[in-house]
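Subject: for your reference before the review

Hello V.,

The reviewers asked for a structural picture of the protein, and I figured it would be easier to keep everything in one thread rather than splitting it across files. Below is the amino acid sequence we used in the manuscript, unchanged from the supplementary table.
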Amino acid sequence: MPLRRFAAALVLAATALTVLTFAVRGRAEQPRQPVAAAATVAAPSSADLEFAQMMVAHHAQAVRMSRALVAKPGIPERVRLIADFIAHDQQREIDETNAWLTAWGAADAAGGHHHAGGGSAGMLTEAQLRALDAATGPAAGRMFLRLMIEHHTGAITMARSLLDGDGRNVYTHGMAKHVINEQTAENDAMRALL
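And here is what came back from the structure prediction:
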């Protein structure tokens, strides 16, 4: 009797495995619609292109500031962790945005000439960058937090302007919303550390 139960269980398991195999194969053989074809995406407007190009330059400065701070000795650990997160997160966004700009045929214009510095949209001036580079220890950490809050505030303003203006592309709208949400949360965390 136990041998019959074992044989029945074995047949049942083999049948279940066969059904599962066909189900998985059936799913795998069905053609998948490419994500890009699944939705109609508006071509980027001049406002979308300008926002993407400006964000590359803006993020590049934040990455530079963050990497410089992380390399310094004597930085409080929580400040170092925020700077490290900003460096990695914004570099990822730069890479994604540059890929979109290339796909849009606008990569050559993405050199960052819109925001070479000078306080526009939270961008640091060369004098501020030199002061941050020269600062050490906890004072460098405090300076980084104050300057990065200002920098993030400029990016948030740029993102809101795109959403309220002539931007129409789904990628740039998603990026703008991410900038507002992510950098507002980072500003709250940095203010708490100050």
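For the response letter, the relevant points are probably these. The CA atoms of residues 65 and 123 lie 11 Å apart. Confidence is low (pLDDT under 50) at residues 6-39, 110-118.

Happy to draft the paragraph if you're swamped.

O.
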